[in-house]
Amino acid sequence: MILIDGNKISAEIKEEIALEVQQMKKRGEKTPHLVAIIVGHDGASETYVGHKEKSCKQVGFDSTVLRFEDTVTEKELLETVDKLNNDPAIDGFIMQLPLPKHISEQKVIEAIDPKKDVDGFHPINLGRIVIGLPAYVSATPAGIIELFKRYKIETSGKNVVVIGRSNIVGKPISILLSQKANPGDATVTLTHSRTKNLKDIVSKADIVIAALGQPEFLTAEMLKEGAVVIDVGITRIKSENTKSGWKLIGDVKFDEVSKKASFITPVPGGVGPMTIVSLLQNTLKAAKGEIYPK
Questions:
Q1: CA–CA separation, 30 and 138 (whole Å)
Q2: What is the CATH number of domain 139-272?
Q3: H-assigned helices in the chain
Q4: Residue 244: how many CB atoms within 10 A of its CB?
């Protein structure tokens, strides 16, 4: 079994980005600038945005965080989005989710200019992915693809089962792996909580991507010997064995599945670090005009 080390790969990519940013600055080009908008005081969101700020600093990006109380109106938030859309100093920005219930997440996402949608959530970017056009790929699927590349995991002709059909992970990764590309060229089955005979389907998979959001859902008995397992899930549970009193577990029952898998991502330290570094990659592409020429 080979442990897929997301921390190691993300550190390598950050070094590559930092070197490219240094060269851009030497040529007198604009420093990439990422903005994060956060509403309220959700602990997980605060932590995630903090990691993004730190990562931007590590690679030499300019970084701004715009904070709003959870009493902010939808109108005020949309006005902020419009300003960022029209600010040439900003290369990309993200809206940290979730938003308060009185604000339509979909309305806000659709208000973001696709050219600055470095989270890859806008329907236009998702649509461009479907038909194979250059687009900002949402960060988690992009991170998974990068792990396949760096670990030289063969996907061509393989039977891939994705568990979970979210617009952020399940659907995009199923599209990417089925496309004529490398990684890609796989036969992909997209499954979910209503799928019948799920165990039978998973048992035939060469690669399983677990993104259902149910802790330790994937067990060894469901898996084919030597399968590649990518665990996207992350759940915080109480633990007496950690200083914080909490620990993170994934959608995969790691202790038993790792004995049967050929490659596996841990939680934490697998897909998670790749999500943030993929956001940095998208922002760099935005600054260079690689997806939508400036």
A1: 24
A2: 3.40.50.720
A3: 6-26, 43-59, 74-85, 105-111, 123-130, 139-150, 170-178, 198-203, 254-257, 271-288
A4: 8
- Diameter over CA atoms, the chain: 58
Using the Cα atoms of residue 76, residue 82, residue 87 and residue 89 in order, give the sign of their dihedral: positive
Under the banding of pLDDT at 50, 70 and 90, the label for residue 187 is: very high
Look at residue 237 and tell me whether its pLDDT is greater than 80.
no
d(CA 187, CA 162): 11
Per residue in 3-26, pLDDT (tens digit) is 999 999 999 999 999 999 999 999
Q: How far apart are the first and last CA of the chain?
A: 45
The confidence score (pLDDT) of residue 247 equals: 80
* Angstrom distance (rounded) from CA 242 to CA 25: 43
The CB density around residue 178, as the number of other CB atoms within 10 Å, is 17
Q: How many CA atoms lie within 13 A of 145 on its CB side?
A: 24
Q: So what's the pLDDT on residue 188?
A: 98
Q: What fold characterizes domain 28-115?
A: Rossmann fold (3.40.50)
Question: Domain ranges in the chain?
Answer: 28-115, 139-272
User: Does residue 242 register a pLDDT over 80?
Assistant: no
pLDDT tens per residue, range 105-148: 999 999 999 999 999 999 999 999 999 999 999 999 999 999 99
- Name the residues annotated as catalytic: 52, 96, 119
**Which pTM was predicted?**
0.93
DSSP codes of every residue in 1-59: -EE--HHHHHHHHHHHHHHHHHHHHHTTPPPPEEEEEEES--HHHHHHHHHHHHHHHHH
